[in-house]
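Crash report, auto-generated. Payload:
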Amino acid sequence: MKSSNTIFLAAFIALSASWAGFVLVPQIQLGRADQAKTIPAEDKYPLARAGLAAQGAEVYRSLGCVYCHSQQVGQQGVKVEVLLLDAGTNASSTLAAIAKVHPELNKPETITGLPKEIAYVADIAASDALVKAVTAVGGKVEVNVIPTGSDISRGWGKRRTVAQDYIFDHVVQPGTRRAGPDLANVGSRLADLNWQLNHLYAPKSMVKDSTMPAYRILFEKRKIGKVASADALKLTGDSAPPPGFEIVPTDKARELVAYLLSLRSDAPLFESPVTPPPAAAPATNTVAAK
Amino acid sequence: MTATSPTTPSKIDSSCRLPLFTLFSGAAVWLVLSSVFGLAASMTFHKPDMFADCAMFSYGRAYPAWSHLLVYGFAIPSGLGVGLWLLARLGRVEVAKPLLIAVGAKLWHLGVMVGFVAIVNGQTSGYEWFELPRYAAMILFLSFMLMAIWVFVTYSRRTETALYPSQWFTLASLFWFPWIFSTATLLLQIFPVRGVVQSSVAWWFAGNLLNVWLTLSGLAATFYLLPKLTNRPLQSHYLALFVFWTVLIFGTWTGIPMHSPLPAWMSTLSSAAAVMMIVPMLALASIVFLTTIGAKTACGGGSLCFSKFGVLSFNLATLAAAIAACPAVARVTDFTWFTHGHTTLRLYGFFAMTMFAAIYHILPRVTGVEICPRRTKSHFWLALIGTLLLAVPMMIGGIKQGLKLADVSAPFLDSTKATMLGFRIGTLGEVLIAIGALIFLANVLLSILSHYRAIAKIAIADATAIQTAEVKL
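Recovered output after restart:
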């Protein structure tokens, strides 16, 4: 190259191309995304975080949780479960219709003991053929879409996370590393407030062999006054404070836990369906199984 | 160059002195501090509760402090300093406004410090490789522009018009940084974009910073040093041009991980670009092979050793990133320490080593005082072993972690346990790197100090000469 103009032109062309691709196009494609409707309930999704949970997002960012915890669920595919609810008035023609699509189901047990699952197919297109065949002869079927993949098997989510899940987040922290488990749905997986507080104070007391650092900075250790504080942590074993002392969560701890409990991205969406829809948020503080 | 010419190499070198002293000494201080935080972060994996009562050193703050200081504190100022010297020497021109560049460098270091204090106090932005808050980012942008303008003016006043590859790389790096950095600052912090577009911008920025900016700045030094130190011509300018184009074209699309909530076309495109980075990698390997083959220069732990190891690390890191970009491999390595392993290899193994090579080559010329070869040699071995002990076990641990994560029958904690051995060895690597960084700091400061001591000696000698003359009168 003889002139500096060529160098700058080369750099300009290369960089403007990737700028257009990874900054401009995503902004056009996703930058104005708004609430979508869940299927089939047609609720608005997502809802912006409010109050404590919104403040907790700042605590999450400030403590650098993202360096160990991702907030995104992957999915390798879906399985579609076809349930036969009712064989209709003419059961034998229903069976014939089913057998046309799935010859291996041509046996009387297929239409007895209803409702039950009759087929488990790889995609929605394959289930459509069966649904059409059965409904044409008056049978009733239900189709359940079940996402699959290692993240889902681990219970980290019901479906993959999509751009829609993050539209109200600033800062968006999908994370790139899993030194700890994924937190995209920690609010539905571990919905107990006290469990979360105890876990932040002394992770090993809640999860044996946990490698997570304790966040004692979020708690205050103080002398028990005339009356013990109502919100002091109930700790046992090694993590319990010395007699006469109590461990009380600070505002930051409460905010962070409110945020963690708000983490839930399992609403069934058109672009990422999951049926039957997951149960609504639990009203009580029962410990959700891991 | 004739002796009568107004710009002799020594004149050029002395015009670089002030900016280079400021840039390099600051970079060396930040490198030491960054390795302290790297060590603190790595200790978390030995004793998770070590910093449970000390927020500053807790992993979520020590880690971003490490990366912030390493990239913005060490890498960019040292890359700029080396670039400035290369443009001045290759263009046979004295530096324009060295004082203003030095002021810019001071301002840059101030911005780095503001960002660092903010990060350890929890004001981190939350974007990886762009942790500094808005106010620190603005200081850095302004000071970079202040420096870049005068570096460019220096280049445009050159008396030698023929361009050498190192000049292309340096110029492109001067152009690249303001663009990507201003995009990230504007769209992430000042007028934040909505939802995952933030992730897209942040990953685009990080990819361009780590895979393009560091490559441009590092290879500018490599293409100058290798021919110079082996006393052989660069083989060849055409291959170097090919590396330049392919790094720009492919490197700029890297950065978006395979697994992300972004539309699939983006990660697919980004992975393809990461695989295509093998092309410049092979071209670079050929250049280095053809240039240095048959050269009879012993490297002896000096600049040549640093530079050669830098090229080797670049190739290994690029290859690892390319392999990890294949969907079948990404399924295992995404979300694991593997990525961190090859990024560390790129930062410490390629970029830092290349900068050490360049600084050890440049400083004696600028100060007129040699650096003790024993000290550079011990720095070389500490940095080399430290980098390998840090990066390689991390990559192996990452693969083990990924296999456990993919195997749903294994409990999650098995995947963290699988990396523990890697961390234990890695901490040793961090210790060696930290000692190496201390030696580097000592080398830079002693070199600068001995320059001023020599000046002082001359001044004292002059003064005594005048005094004796006066006495005689």
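Post-recovery validation: Chain B has a mean pLDDT of 94.
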